[in-house]
Amino acid sequence: MSKQVQLLTLWAVCSLLAALVALQFSEAAFEEKSGTWVPVSNDSFYHARRIIDAADPAIGLQQFDSKIHVPEGSWITWPWAYDWLMAKALQGWQQLNPNAEPMAFLAQVPVYWTFINLAILLGICVAVGLAVPWIVLVMLGYALSPLTMLLHGIGIIDHHYIEHTFVLLTAYTGLRWLQHPERILNAMLLGITLGSATAFHNGLFILQLPVLLTLAILWMNRNTPPQPAMAMLSTSLILSTVLILLPAEAFRVGQFSFAVLSWFHLYIAAASTLFISCFGRLKYNKAILLGLLLTGAALLIPIWADTLGGAAFLSGNIALLDRITEARSPFQMAMSTGGFKEVLSYYSLFCLLAPVLLVIYLWRIWKYQSPQSLFFAVMTVFGLSLLFMQFRLHYFGSFSLLLGWAVLANEKLTIAQRRPALTCLAGVAAIAGAFSIGVNAKILTPYNLGLDPAYEDGFGLLTTLHDACQQKPGTAFADNNFGHYIRYHTDCSVISNNFLMTPLHEKKALEVKGLLNLSPEEFLEQAPADVRYIFARLDNFFARGTDGGFVMTSTPYLQEQNARLFFELNSRNDLPPRYRILEELPLDESRNLSRARLIEVLPAQ
Predict the structure, then answer these.
(1) 454, 365 contact by CB (below 8 A)
(2) For residue 313, is pLDDT > 80?
């Protein structure tokens, strides 16, 4: 069997395995009682709403949503490309299946995308020169990783799996170019990858950083790629950036902000183009280096506020962001209730060696052997650094957890060439052991609907709210976590949700937090006038008992652990007459207490 056939077979088998693992979220994506598909993970709900609306010619793609963060409304911080392309795919599918449920199609897309991402990963493995046994282990580990499942799970239509695609594409196109730096076409492909990435997520302009760092190190070592290739890289980067900015409404109205696809991103691409051109045209000396450093410092001045805002997001220094699991670092996760085992269940035992891997590749940057090996080392350090910073950023470095060691083993060990079968068997055993915690805890485990027990518990109330909002639209008040759920299920507006990127978002989150601390009587006086519904749900009504099972918590504990407004709305029978209970979920028969109530706020007489 030729190497090409071996690799093609390996790609097909591992892609199928990754897809089967991704299907383990089926319980979270399908509500059996109503027979409906639902999004999985909080942000997927807003993506679904936006995609379904964009597929409707009467609505189209929204880039500003007047029904979130009311009354101001808010620019949608996600760029246009992902949701627009998904909407176009949905329209094509609906032509073939006119009566089918849109989510029945959308839920499957991330699963099939495993074939795309594994193909790119295979290309990276070939580009770095791995022997087939090491490629087997990298591909197998990637397919079994709970991090891969979180990106590609059925129903998880959040755009993280596409962000991961651009990380992999940057690594692949960069490696292919620097393998033969004189090839202009490869330089162009890298530039297009970097320029188009921001159409899928605003923050992906950061992918330009490892490329610039690599070129800067090569320039200082007088090993810069040929000037025509550098010119093509800078030209394709700036032109592709301009092309993806043209459909962005925030860009067309003149906004300059990191939070939306805007002139900020053209500014970043132009700055990158400037430095690439300098590296290509100027010979290194200390005076020019100082000039470039001063230029870089000057270019930071117009974007300083956005730089601080981006740093606040990465550090979690935004109101309520620390409540969102994906915004926590692995170290914060280890200190939480899940403990160190929770971290291992996601990242595998290879995460224990990740700091060592980081140090090794920092050294390899200092002592690089070739432009290609330098770029791979930079991408590894870059990815692992972001992986350590926030859980949601794992897609920048998750592939390096295995691939980094495989590259080292490929260079230092000859056993893969001498005994490939033995290498594969030993490696498969190591992979099985490293990922065993994750397979048991994250893959072979049941999941709540929507990946949220609170959503599963309140699913029926959201159906009732949908009907109520159709008859009497208005603003539905709920905590941030239910903002996307309400926006997906109903036509009602929300005051806040889990968009926590801008000062407005932070302001609205704090507004909701303040209203939650009021009594029901005070809420009627201080809440916005158009609040027509309240989705009031209690948390922490179950806790683990001494035997390991779940027991119901006491009423005083519930009062202590929940916001005053929601506790009183679920515990009082003497609510003001302007509150009309549409539906409730009782907690237990022994206490006059509900775990959730959907309440209509009647107009003042």
Answers:
(1) no
(2) no
